[in-house]
Amino acid sequence: MNGQNRKDIHPGLEVDIVLKQDQRTGKLTRGIVKDLLTNSQHHPHGIKVRLQDGQVGRVKNIIS
Predict the structure, then answer these.
(1) How far apart, in whole angstroms, are the C-alpha atoms of residue 24 and residue 21?
(2) Could you tell me the end-to-end alpha-carbon distance of the chain, in angstroms, rounded to an integer?
(3) Fewest beta carbons within 10 Å, which of 31, 38, 61, 64?
(4) 18 is a domain residue
(5) Cα–Cα distances in angstroms (integers) from residue 35 to residues 24, 25, in the given order
(6) Overall domain count for the chain
(7) Which residues pair with residue 59 across a beta bridge?
(8) For 8-22, what is the HEC assignment?
(9) pLDDT by residue (tens digit) across 9-37?
(10) 56 by DSSP, 3-state: which?
(11) What SS3 state is found at 39?
């Protein structure tokens, strides 16, 4: 799953995100979702989330 649909993502899910500063390189950061920050049901670049460690980025891959 690619993280573009809000219905696929919920708190507690393990995901790979791209942080704002890593958008050029595409470097992925893995973590556990704490909050969903995107309100729309779909976003072409990925749903924006906050991880439990406080980092914010767009979901690229859903792990669990």
Answers:
(1) 7
(2) 10
(3) 64
(4) yes
(5) 24, 24
(6) 1
(7) 17
(8) HCCCCCEEEEEEHHH
(9) 999 999 999 999 999 999 999 999 999 99
(10) strand
(11) coil
Domain that residue 38 falls in: 6-62
Mean pLDDT of the chain, nearest integer: 96
Angstrom distance (rounded) from CA 40 to CA 54 = 21
Kindly give, in sequence order, each residue whose CB lies less than 8 Å from that of residue 24, ignoring residues fewer than 6 positions away.
Answer: none
Q: What is the DSSP letter of 42?
A: B
Question: Which residues, including other chains, have CB under 8 Å from residue 58's CB and lie 6 or more apart?
Answer: 3, 17, 18, 43, 45, 46, 47, 48, 49
- Note the residue count of the chain: 64
Residues 30-48, mean pLDDT to the nearest whole number:
97
CATH number of the domain at 48, please.
Answer: 2.30.30
Beta-strand relationship, 14-19 and 28-36: antiparallel
- As given in the structure block, the two tokens for residue 17 are 């995100």
